[in-house]
Amino acid sequence: MAYASLVGGAALALAPNTRHLLLRPFVRVSVRARACVLPVVATAAAAAGEGGSGRRYWRWSKADFFPEPSFASWRSYGGALAATVPRLVDRVGSRSSEAAEAGTLRAVSENPLRRCLSWLDLAFLGFGSVVGSGVFVLTGQEARFDAGPAIPLAYAAAGFSALLSSFCYAELATEIPSAGGSFSYLRVELGDIAAFLAAGNILLEAVVGAAGLGRSWTSYLAALLGRDTDSLRIHVPALAEGFNLLDPIAVVVLVSTSAVAMTGARLTSTLNSLASVVGIAIIAFVLAAGFSHFDAGNLAPSFFPFGAAGVFRAAGVVYWSYTGFDMVATMAEETKNPGRDVPLGLISSMSSITVVYCLMSLALVGMQRYTEIDANAAYSVAFAAAGMRWARYVVALGALKGMTSGLLVGALGQARYTTQIARTHMIPPYFALVHPTTGTPIYATVAVTLGAACVALFSSLDVLASVSSISTLFIFALVAVALLVRRYHVAGRTTAGQLRTFLAFLALVVLSSIGVSAYYNSRYARRWPGYAAFGCGWAAGAAGLAACAEKQRAPRVYGAPLVPWLPAMSIATNLFLMGSLGTAAYARFGICTAGMLVYYVLFGVHATYDVAHADDAAADNLEHGKIAAAPTATTPA
């Protein structure tokens, strides 16, 4: 009885601000099943109160992976599957809270992530994670096959969209300083289903992005050694094209950088800052040497050999090169002053990176005609063609440095994403555990690294880039929607009429944005009436939000400017760039999304349902204990 009282009280105290947001369960679990959740709640309560559970970090058991009552036995799991529909309905209507995402859920990790980063650290982390994964990897590929000499415009378009997204991220990161980044923002503002789709795409992006950098590292190492870019890979004719060049070097690089990231955020940040200084010097050299060999004739006879469609198609792919900035948002939990440091770090790094990308891509197409650019090691080969054979080694070394920094920072951010997702039990909570000595989520880091290593061993860069870009664009569009929801809707305060007005104009913005993208990729793309109609629809939606919808909340520390226009434009640009990607990218995206939904139905919905109703289960179990212990007419008191 005393045990039940203690655990029941702890369960009810864990999430006092979130319980009212949850719907009552449609299917009652058995008393035996309810009891299974109590040790989990007790552990979380102990961790929250004492800063650690006292359990060994290095452990491996079924209870660590599947502590929820739905997975206590095959019979329990069968009962959970039978209740899938009402549980899905329950989760659709649920939203998390800021207190849960930035506070209560941290207890699942048993040990805290350490606050040790400043805005300058974040700026260098943003710079290190992005520069190298874009210019040195994708510029040659997209200039050669999609944009031609207009590749700087592709970077400008992608950079404009990314900058809009960075403003949205900056506000949400200061309001919800969680390691989950966009996953946490969506879980608070759009609910579990949207957050799960984002979570799946975040993990896909993490694995694919790291794999792409690993393979590019091998290409530039080969260029540094003066060999063909594929010479260090193992050709296996029996495998399909695009998957038949095995890359063991990429696997070694991925494992090595992740091992460094496991040692701690402070050490990784310091190494990245030192490397970034070297990278800035190399970029300055590339720009000076590149423009000294600039030949305007290389931009002729046509600046747009593939038309505007090619520029936007390239913009959709090179958007991958900007994805590192969202890693900065995941470091909010380890930042000394997230309200000030996150916006400064995000916006300063993104602005400078966009300028650098445009200048470096212009230098490349000015040095060498786009038809002669090497798609795998563009800058090294371009300098060799310009008579500066020695410069190719400097460029290759700079590219290796940039990609190594990208892998280091990526290992930090990807593991933080995974940690927060595991804290919610959408994936096993085992991956949320933080090591007590290093203050890092070692299990999460290992999981992402193993996935990336397997993909990097087989898949080519062009296959990886298109999959990663579409996932990134999808998440960034959802984050912009989440910012609008945050400003215009507060549960319990927004009236039904205000909500209907807001949703109507938001739907107009989203549907018009989809319409422009679809129209541009249709056979009517050269006709202006469609653009006018959809453009007016978007403008009417954004103007309606500004004039007719009433804002329900003001940002506490930092607010994105020009709301609702800026997030509405972010939605439009991200959806437009999504539409510019090829059908193969959508096919892969669709297959991956279908797989995510199957996983959610079989596992995610049941795990999150159990956790969401753990307080109800504990309270019911406590009441059952009281009834059992109460004296009756035949039992003397």
UniProtKB/TrEMBL annotation:
Keywords: Amino-acid transport, Membrane, Transmembrane, Transmembrane helix, Transport. Residues 558-607 form the Cationic amino acid transporter C-terminal domain. The chain crosses the membrane at residues 116-138, 150-172, 193-214, 274-291, 303-322, 343-370, 390-412, 433-458, 464-485, 497-519, 531-549, 561-579, 585-603. GO terms for cellular component: plasma membrane. It holds the Pfam family AA_permease_C. InterPro entries: AA/rel_permease1, CAT_C. This is Cationic amino acid transporter C-terminal domain-containing protein.
